[in-house]
Amino acid sequence: MINNTLPYKTKQFFFVLIKLSIVVGAFYFIYNKLANNDNLQLSTFIDFLSKKNVFATKNIILLLFLSIFNWFFEILKWKILVSPIKKISFKNALEQSLGALTASLLTPNRVGEYGAKAIYYSTNMRKRVVLINLLSNLLQMAITVILGVLGFYFLISTYPVNLDYYKLARVSIIGLMVLFLVGFGIKKSKITIKGFSLEKVKRFVTEFPRIKILQGLLFSFVRYAVFSFQFYFLLLLFGSSIAYLDAMIIITSMYLLASIIPSIFIFDVVIKGSIALYLFQFVNINELTVLSIITTMWLLNFVIPSMFGSFYVLNFNFPKNED
């Protein structure tokens, strides 16, 4: 928060400077990622898209429609989940979702999104907004994990995936023991999260309206169905003849593995690319196709929305009851 002892014009100057820095930083890293990608040169990527006729009007319209549909349900989910503490319009939810996307673009695992959404609300609501945003992400993660585990099961049942089951079991047992010990330690201590005790966090989640959680889960599933189909459509567009169910085995496994690897969000495309290259080799899809699809998905679902989000970042003002 800008120091209240500073003159008003000085505070306004620093406030504008911070907003500009966020937008310029986001655009610079997007440009840098596209222009200096060791795995996929920008010129090669554009030539490949042209050869596959991706720039045809009907293809662009369908791809953009799927991206809009994807974000429509994300925005609607936020509007529904935040409604128990404050009713907001779809336009407000749009501004908060896309603005937070832009502001969080450079932060590890999009952690900046929590603070970015919270500052749209008055001080007394911000802790609850952070928890609601956590709940929203957990609902999306739940869908990713459930479908990903199913996909991964069929993956190892269908394809010759080399897994060291002894090592996997050992790591799983150690992980469960660590989680148990950490959970036991937290339960016996009086740890707080941003002023919330864990008991209050637990009570907040358990008392949250069940109908809102179910709606959020439904919207998360629809989002997943949309962007996974978009990935499949790009496979077909780039010349693959893979069946839908076979593709979904790979796609769901890819999103599962990518979601559990911590990363700076701007490099999410690199992580998904590396995992996808390994998984799609089982169905004989070449590297250029896979990397091009991953990059296209990133552009459609994150880069373009973040550009619109930059408008909301630049026009952001604190709630009226804030100084």
Automatic annotation (TrEMBL):
List membrane-spanning regions: 12-31, 55-73, 130-156, 168-186, 289-314
Q: Does the keyword Transmembrane helix apply?
A: yes
At the top level, the lineage of the source is: Bacteria
| Keywords from the UniProt entry | Membrane, Transmembrane, Transmembrane helix
- The protein here is known as Lysylphosphatidylglycerol synthase domain-containing protein
Q: What is the native source organism of this protein?
A: Jejuia spongiicola
Taxonomic classification, please?
Answer: Bacteria, Pseudomonadati, Bacteroidota, Flavobacteriia, Flavobacteriales
